[in-house]
Amino acid sequence: MENLTEVNNPHGDEKVFDACSIFGMMNLKGERFSAKDPIRAIANMHDRGNGLGGGFAAYGIYPEYKNDYAFQIMYLDRDAKKKTDRLLSESFNILNEEEMPTQPANVRDSPIMWRYFLQLKKSRNNAQTASDYIIEKVMRINTETGKAFVFSSGKNMGVFKGVGFPEDVAEYFCLEDYKGYMWTCHGRFPTNTPGWWGGAHPFNILDWTVVHNGEISSYGINKRYLEMFGYKCTMQTDTEVMAYAFDLLMRRQNLPIELVSQILAPPLWSEIKTMKPENKLALTALRQTYGSLLMNGPFTIIVAHEGEMIGLTDRIKLRPLTAAEKSDYLFLSSEEAAIRLVSQSLDRVWSPRGGEPVIGRLKSRRAVDVIAQEVYGE
Amino acid sequence: MKSYVCPEYIVERDQDRCIRCKVCVNQCSYDTHCYDEEDDCMISKNENCVNCQRCATFCPTQAITIRPNPNNYKSNANWTQEVLTGIKKQAETGGVVLTGMGCDKPNLTYWDRLLINASQVTNPSIDPLREPMELRTYIGSKPDKLDLDMVKGDGIVLKTKLAPQLQLETPIMFSAMSYGSISLNVHKSLARAATEAGTFYNTGEGGLEKSLYKYGDHVIVQVASGRFGVHPDYLNAGAAIEIKIGQGAKPGIGGHLPGEKVSEEISETRMIPLGTDALSPAPQHDIYSIEDLRQLIYALKEATNYTKPVFVKIAAVHNAAAIASGIVRAGADAVVLDGIRGGTGAAPRITRDNVGIPIEMALAAVDQRLRDEGIRNKASIIAAGGIKSSADVLKAIALGADACYIATAALVSLGCTVCQKCYTGKCPWGIATTDLWLTKRINPDIGAKRLASLLRGWSLEIMEMMGGMGINAIESVRGNRLVLRGVGLTDKELEILGVRMVGD
Predict the structure, then answer these.
(1) ipTM for this prediction
(2) Interchain proximity A285–B138, CB inside 8 Å
(3) DSSP labels for B287-330?
(4) A191 or B144, higher pLDDT
(5) How far is B132 from chain A (nearest CA, A)?
(6) CB atoms closer than 10 angstroms to residue A49
């Protein structure tokens, strides 16, 4: 996109607010299922959005290309596609490329949507890691080629999003024809009127996707802290800092999700005070070091990447999150009603505590509800 | 020889109210009032009055009014009263006009042109009366990442060793005021209040009096150019060490304690002869370059076994950002920035009013520069210089400060009326003096209570404003320029502050 700021944030708000509905569904055994149920669930929460954004992230949808990078790109003009095609053929081996299947639906001003299945070239200079290489190429497509924007660039996964209610976006992309083992969904209620499809959720970096309901009051400092580590916050949405925070802490600094949640939604000093000495020292050090990544203000997020789906709320739980399990399925939702619509009976349904993540991991028998006491042995 | 300078103030006494109790005679240390036995009347010498308001405050019948002398020169925007009297005084004495406290000239304060946000609808505000609101702050060098081991069900083990940190329960500390510029009773009050409030007080460059060593865990000891009272016990007595390169009230010159204020006790603590002027050298004579500073920082760390953070304090000047970057790379755990409004016990008035820049701009520039260079985590930033309210503290934190130092505000809470005569040593409030007859007027028990109350009041106000913004931890305000907007500022000022215009 030529000028992401102008396109995503036409009124120059300090950030684009994201209120809304979110839903996640995962089969812990890795069995792939159709988008039908996630779509029904997110459509049930129709009134939490205002029709100005909807989106889905799906994992396990390209098993025949499971080791290749699936780039899903939107174009607003042919020139951008020409430039992007050139950049892609210079940087990758293109195994396959095609226009994404779509059908008419109640969505606004749909762009041209293409997907590419790519492999790294053997002649590539190995000085950069594969991940940094992908991030760099995505950044270049987004900023240098004109009116193009990469929706997703992970392996065996894809982001489908646009301007319309989520159920209409799903219809547009023929999502019921896809099968994945993990789906996350989002319906948007933005308070400005972005007309462009790239601004909807999920937000993607590598194979990380984030759907987010909330408004981060600490955004101003979260952004400046991440910028020190080389991230460019071009989208000006809080969701962006959420995704980059996960990339920094989990991928680059190798911290486990249990500790990452203690950085984004830390326990209060009054709680830390009562912990045993080693935990007190560690949690104090986390707040001292990563204080600028504390996400203040209401949020519920569902973060997904290969093999894992994580639901997390802010530490005083100002936005809803309900979790549920039924045989091999884990559900995360803004509202319980949406889960019940998909599965009337549930083995277990609960409201996770503020700041304590719920994690679904492939091949684990059940979801992990991270309760601080259990983690720290308090 | 008759002075051409007229009295600045006129003492008006309401004779109907005056009961000739002579409280004013006792309280005034400038010898303004006296009682004529013969005529049974009170006489006031206008030329001695400095408008400290001590007599007016203590007069039991409110019989005294201090007025600015209406006999002013013809009003002139360029040749003001202050300019004309200053020139005449210099003609009469050939000296440097001294003054006390901070720059009093208009149009140098940016705090009043910055406004704070509140959250509504899209983001709920948080109720500080009913919900936790966290102000705890740690001053010191932070790493870029942590090495931790997690044993499920057992606990988390921290492998990275952090540099020493100061723990503050509120992001406000008492700034450097030397023993000598202020009295021991005020130091006692500051030490006790800092201990009670869970924060720190700075000794200033006059050393730490022996009886205060017991408060050491809440003391920041200062090493300034005069090296007064600096010895190994002193360095190890405090919780942190501050190297004073400069101060906002008089950038480029050293501390200034007139001989009148160098009493027996001062002489002993500072290790200097009785009655001599204590004029600190302008630079620290072993710091002529950034590499020299690095050497001193590490010498102090070695002397204290790397157990205490070392701060470096500079006055806010034009290239503060570059200097601060150098200071951080030289190994300092915190950079202290003192702006032009900073106070002092004595300074040439010409320097106080003309040298240095406002703290708001310096702070914004330093914070941004350190982030641009990727080194902001390596040192905390402490802002000082005329911080007069909890709103100023919050705005400073939003611009990037980890904490603020206050000094003038602390003295005002003890009784100071900012009459700017600290250098005379005659402070009738018993604050900026070492005269034992006057210092008795500050009772450390009461003083400590007043100071702790000030900190408590400001902390509660900060919590109100934070809750209003939908934030419940101070680290989410720190460096968060988006919570501020500017009004009445030029585009360039907004750009340097990193703040948008109201309405934008």
Answers:
(1) 0.89
(2) no
(3) -SSHHHHHHHHHHHHHHTTT-S-EEEEEE--TTHHHHHHHHHHT
(4) B144
(5) 8
(6) 23
Which residues on A lie below 8 Å from B484 (Cβ)?
Answer: none
Chain A touched by B158 (CB under 8 Å): yes
For A104, the token pair is 């008419």
* Contact across the interface for B148 and A276, Cβ inside 8 Å: no
In angstroms, the separation between the Cα of residue A378 and the nearest Cα of chain B is: 8
The whole-angstrom distance between B371's CA and the closest CA on chain A is 6
First vs last Cα of chain A: how many Å apart? 50
Nearest to B500 among A14, A296, A378 (CB): A14
Residue B389: CB atoms within 10 Å:
14
- Residue among A351, A347, A344, A315 nearest A330 (CA): A347
How far apart, in whole angstroms, are the C-alpha atoms of residue A335 and residue A286? 32
Q: How far apart are CA B500 and CA B504, in angstroms?
A: 6
Chain B residues within an 8 Å CB radius of A292: 475, 478-479
Dihedral angle, C-alpha B6, B10, B11, B13, nearest 10 °: 130
DSSP secondary structure of A11-28: T--SSB-B-EEEEEEEET
The radius of gyration of chain B from alpha carbons, rounded to an integer in Å, stands at 24
> Cβ separation of A298 and B124 shorter than 8 Å?
yes
Q: How many CB atoms lie within 10 A of CB A342?
A: 21
- Which amino acid appears at position A250 of this protein? M
Distance CA A158, CA A181 (A): 12
Token couple for B87: 């020139």
In one letter, which amino acid is B457?
G
Report how far residue B363's alpha carbon sits from residue B356's, in angstroms, rounded to the nearest whole number: 13
pLDDT in tens, A283-316: 999 999 999 999 998 999 999 999 999 999 998 8
Distance CA B139, CA B148 (A): 22
Checking if the pLDDT of B258 tops 80, the result is yes
For A276, the closest chain B residue by CA position comes to B155
> Cα-flanking dihedrals φ and ψ of residue B184, to 5°?
-65, -35
Residues 375-414 of B with CB under 8 A from A: 376-377
Confirm or reject contact between B123 and chain A (CB < 8 A).
yes
Alpha carbons B193 and B197: distance in angstroms, whole number: 6
Angle between helices B444-468 and B390-399 (to 10 degrees): 60
Phi, psi of B500 (to 5 degrees): -90, 170
Q: How far is CA A177 from each of CA A33, A52, A61, B168, rounded to the nearest angstrom? A: 10, 24, 10, 58
Q: Which of A16, A18, A188, A217 to mutate to test the interface with B (most CBs of B within 10 A)?
A: A217
| pLDDT per position as a tens digit, A128-159 | 899 999 999 998 999 888 889 999 999 999 99
Q: Return the pLDDT at A378.
A: 67
**Which of 316-375 (B) contact A at CB < 8 A?**
371, 374
B273 preceded by cis ω (within 30°)? no
CA angle B241, B247, B251 (to 5 degrees): 140
Q: Which residue of B has its CA nearest to A13?
A: B504
- The identity of residue B499, as a single letter, is V
**CA atoms within 13 Å, Cβ hemisphere of A322:** 14
Q: What is the DSSP letter of B73?
A: P
Phi-psi region of B74 (alpha: psi -120 to 50; beta: other; left: phi over 0): beta
Report d(CA B179, CA A145) in Å as an integer.
66
Whole-number Å distance between alpha carbons of B466 and B128: 8
Question: pTM score > 0.90 for this model?
Answer: yes
How distant is the Cα of A359 from the closest Cα of chain B, in angstroms? Answer: 15
Tokens of B478: 């720190």
